[in-house]
Design goal:
By secondary structure, this protein is mainly alpha-helical. 75% of the residues lie in helices and 0% in strands. It has one domain.
């Protein structure tokens, strides 16, 4: 095996994610259910009054500054992620191309739930309860959607591509990526609003616990969903 092939193999191994042996007629509805639950959890996180999840902090802050809907800002960010993946990988992979319609659907679902959940937590008790529910729902949604190994949402696709390019483990790149999104949110907020938007204690808890929640659900659902 030549050096280039060895490097590509190492990159692919580093960025490899879980799959399933379930047949497609089952994988697709489970995947879509996971996406719906994931969107619900992400939006619920914005209602805690304690800061939003790291990956959602950029569209949330831009939405607050510009007046655009959260779903629209999420779609724009995901669109940028998809273009970046195509540039980095230098190939028109079907899994990347299919992220375009999924990003549009994701944005629509975010707006739907944002309008449906027309409330904010009134205190720390309410905030922590909503945050706990949001973390569990987000972790559950991630387990279902990622575990079916179909089309990743653009954010996970971006992390996977960066992990592939750098030769890092997906988890390591995910933490780095989340921190980068938080820093970008702080910069955008300070430049355009002169104060921090969307970053708080809930952001920290989400960054620390969503991955753990997803790991917990993966263990619980490994046999029923035939996760690998």
């Amino acid at each position: 095996m030549n050096t280039a092939a060895a490097q590509n193999t190492a990159k692919t191994t580093s960025a490899k994610k879980a799959g399933t042996t379930l047949p497609m007629p089952i994988r697709l509805p489970v995947y879509l259910a996971g996406m719906v639950i994931l969107c619900f959890g992400i939006v619920l996180n914005t209602k805690t009054g304690m800061g939003v999840a790291a990956i959602n902090s950029v569209p949330y802050s831009v939405s607050r500054i510009t007046g655009l809907t959260l779903g629209t800002c999420t779609f724009i960010l995901y669109f940028i992620f998809i273009i970046a993946q195509l540039i980095i990988r230098r190939s028109f992979s079907l899994k990347i191309i299919l992220q375009f319609p999924m990003a549009l659907l994701f944005g629509r679902l975010v707006d739907f739930f944002d309008n449906l959940l027309n409330f904010m937590a009134k205190g720390y008790v309410d905030g922590f309860l909503l945050l706990a529910a949001a973390i569990l729902l987000t972790g559950f949604g991630v387990t279902l959607s990622v575990g079916m190994d179909l089309v990743p949402n653009a954010a996970d696709g971006m992390v996977n591509t960066l992990a592939w390019a750098a030769g890092w483990e997906f988890g390591k790149m995910k933490y780095t990526f989340d921190i980068s999104m938080m820093c970008l949110t702080c910069i955008i907020s300070l430049v355009f609003a002169h104060h921090i938007i969307g970053i708080g204690l809930g952001t920290v808890f989400s960054a620390l616990l969503i991955g753990r929640a997803a790991g917990m659900f993966k263990k619980l659902l490994k046999k029923p969903l035939q996760l690998q």
